[in-house]
Specification:
Layout lengths: L1 H11 L5 E2 L1 H9 L5 H15 L4 E2 L6 H4 L19 H10 L13 H19 L4 H8 L3 H11 L6
Parallel strand pairs: 1-2
Helix pairs in contact: 1-3, 6-7, 7-8
């Protein structure tokens, strides 16, 4: 898991430094029916969707948490947002790890596709994979979202 954490931090320009002991215990007890591919996809999503520097049980989706008792979790201490979602997105884009086009160039199409995929995955995770709700979050028609899911080969791993 730490290997994937390192790889996806680098790929996605994130800074998730670790996994809490409680979250690691839950992850180690999950059966991973999709095997290593499911684990890799899962870790990529967790890094992309993370808001803190350490993954905790609160960051894990319901399918992984299962019947884990929530009463023992540390209290959530989170600062109130001081900016609108649009301001947050703008500031996040301004502080991106992307610092310009290197001399050898970039693949703009791939970068745009990767960004779009991250946004779609975040919307799906936030809505527990309810496509209608995810489409609303993204400002898309449901049919457009479904087409994008097929094109990008995005599917829920249960």
């Amino acid at each position: 898991m730490n290997h994937y954490l390192h790889v996806f931090n680098e790929q996605k320009c994130k800074s998730v430094t670790g996994i809490s002991d409680a979250a690691m215990e839950i992850l180690c007890n999950y059966p991973w029916p999709g095997n290593i591919r499911e684990l890799a996809n899962f870790m990529e999503r967790m890094v992309v969707l993370s808001t803190g520097s350490t993954l905790t049980p609160r960051d894990l989706p319901e399918k992984v948490l299962g019947e884990v008792p929530r009463e023992q979790w540390e209290p959530l201490v989170q600062a109130e947002p001081t900016e609108t979602p649009a301001e947050f997105l703008r500031s996040t884009l301004n502080t991106s790890c992307f610092v310009g086009i290197p001399d050898e160039g970039i693949n703009l199409k791939k970068m745009v596709e990767d960004f779009e995929k991250e946004l779609i995955l975040e919307a799906l995770e936030k809505t527990d994979w309810v496509k209608n709700k995810a489409a609303v979050l993204l400002g898309l028609n449901r049919t457009t979202l479904v087409e994008k899911l097929k094109k990008m080969n995005i599917q829920r791993e249960d």
